[in-house]
Amino acid sequence: MHRCQPALPGRRSRRWYVPRLRARLPAAVLLGGLVTGGILLGGCSPIQPWVKPYEREHLADPIMSFDPNPISSVYLDHVYETREGARGATGSVGGGCGCN
Amino acid sequence: MRMHLRTRWLAAAAFGLGAVGRADVLPEDRTDVLYHRYEGGGLTVQGPSVLVRKKFGDSLSVSYQYYEDLISSASIDVLSTASPYKEKRTQHNLNVNYLHGSTLYSAGFIYSKEPDYKSNTGFLSVSQSMFGDLTTVSFGYSQGWDSVGEVDHGIVVQSFNNGIGHANANHRTWSAGVSQVLTRNLLLGVNFEADENDGYLQSPYRPVRFIDPFSIKGYSFGLANAPNTRTGTAGSAQLKYYLPWRAALDGSYRLYGDTWGIVANTVKFGYTQPLSTAWTLEASARYYWQGHANFYSDLYPYEDSQNFTSRDRELAQFHSLSLGLGGSWEFHPGWPHWVDKGTVNFNYDRLHINYQDFHDNLVQSVIPGDEPLYTLDANIFQFFLSFWY
């Protein structure tokens, strides 16, 4: 089709790329549909854990805890947050001002 | 409050759930007793904290935390316009967890009080384990109500509401998190948080500085005026890996941005090495960088030169590095019999901040704004005992 023809030499422009992008769109939509469909259909059958319970010995080790001592991590987060503009997404909890 | 207003409202993953935790078990029964001390920039903050958690039956867990700051301040902000002061802040947290199947519901309340700042925060969160406990998804919401007052320590005092003496600030936070077991040795945690704040969001004790040809120093201080709304979003990801010789390596990254124009990046690494069944050592490094707020300036050309003004160093451009070391010793006391184990812990962090557009005005300079850039070094100590029962 004429929409897929490249531009004339010397007149190479973005119009030449746009048809190629459009030609790829159906493939992208198809791929997205397959992924989405796979996820949805996956809900029809239980997902098998790829790390079995008996393989979680290392993960159960206390040193693998992201927050082994909350009283300490909350305090340290508080120290930083009272001196920095950023906040949040640290997984700890706090309140008040304590802006020291 | 004193040095700057700063509220922190996060409720999801509270007390024991953590950024990466399981939703099909209740938090452990434990008690922690902490002594903390911060020294740096002319400021000393120290005090105790106690956290107690107890299960009631198979479905209910309750925790309570008391936290106290004893503050002695002679920081640059204080010395610029006033004299040193002392004050005290206390905080009470109450949290309830209810477990139903693979779902953990949490609710709680936080009350904080200091002479010039009172806050109340309520929060709710829910977590669900799924996919054979490989994945935990959590959502949370919190809301805070603050009453901001002021105490005259000789600092430039700003009148609220035409001298009535207080102002209000409100905060709402939404959070979501996912923890994921990636392999038998690797964990992933992803957190997202959005917060919305309105009301009085600035510090009455951090005045702005502007050029004043009639002043001996060449500049004077005036009242700041920050916007009364602020919306921020933060996203973070963290990984933790179990090393073959029984050690753990973790890394995290956080990106933050808000409507005041602040963009910040945080990178952190940690290493945990058990030396024996009793001793464990930890090391960490944290780098933080932020750009300044749109309306921030160290020195304005004249008073009220723009609608919004601030010289709060929290809103300045700076980067900081923090290095930490910690040690823990585990023991199993024979008495009392209901205590399973205990640990003695000590942590030390060294914090260094380099401000890039905040000058040390305590240093005399012929030309205002030509003073050296301010730097801050701080030592942070924590000593705490933990007991499991």
The counted number of beta strands of chain B is 18
Question: Strand content of the residues of chain A, in percent?
Answer: under 5%
Low-confidence stretches of chain A: 1-19, 93-100
Beginning-to-end CA distance, first to last residue of chain A: 70 Å
- Percent helix of chain B, as a range, is under 10%
The backbone outline of chain B, from C-alpha atoms, is globular
**Protein chains sharing the most extensive interface:** A-B, 47 and 108 residues
What structural class do you assign from the helix and strand content of chain A? mainly alpha
Strand-and-helix sequence of chain B, N→C?
EEEHEEEEEEEEEEEEEEE
Keyphrases for this structure?
heterodimer, A: 100 residues, mainly alpha, 41% helix, disordered C terminus, B: 389 residues, 16-stranded antiparallel β-barrel, two-stranded antiparallel sheet, 1 helix, 18 strands
Explain what this protein looks like in three dimensions.
The complex is a heterodimer of chains A (100) and B (389). Chain A is flat. Chain A has helices at residues 14-42, 70-81. In chain A, 41% of the residues lie in helices and 0% in strands. Chain B is mainly beta. Helix content of chain B is 2%, strand content 61%. Chain B is built from one helix and 18 strands. The two termini of chain B are 37 Å apart. The model of chain B is unreliable at 2-20 (pLDDT under 50).
Helices and strands in order:
The complex is a heterodimer of chains A (100) and B (389).
Chain A: H1 14-42, H2 70-81
Chain B: E1 30-40, E2 43-56, E3 60-73, H1 76-81, E4 85-100, E5 103-114, E6 117-130, E7 135-149, E8 166-183, E9 186-199, E10 208-211, E11 219-222, E12 229-243, E13 247-258, E14 263-274, E15 279-290, E16 318-331, E17 341-359, E18 373-388
TL;DR?
Chain A has helices at residues 14-42, 70-81. Chain A is mainly alpha-helical.
